[in-house]
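Session log. Operator J.P. requested a structure for one protein chain; no other inputs attached. Running the standard single-chain path with token output.
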Amino acid sequence: MTAYALAHLHTPTINEDVLVYLERIQATLDPFGGTFIAHGPDVEVREGDWPGTVVVIAFPTLSAARSWYDSPAYQEILPLRTDHIAGSAILFDGVRPGHDPAKMAAAIRAT
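Structure written below.
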């Protein structure tokens, strides 16, 4: 099942450290099958507050996403971003093929 890493970057600013991070991140993703889905787009807020931008990276599995995040290569460059850009990051599984929210609601009602 495809899994995702999502970062909500509250204060996206560019400086030399962030540029080095950007130059090096793809090499940390490649061994784990990570691919960018979204990388810092302008966002259109429809509900609530959303300062900043978003980054979404897809992985073949949640295990691969965890292994990437915990890898020495990524941990080495992570402070280049986190020391300069406030934000939050999460890892999560996507839905299985054929996901049906109505069936999900029925299962919740049944419990």
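Operator note: The helical segments are 16-29, 62-70, 72-82, 101-110.
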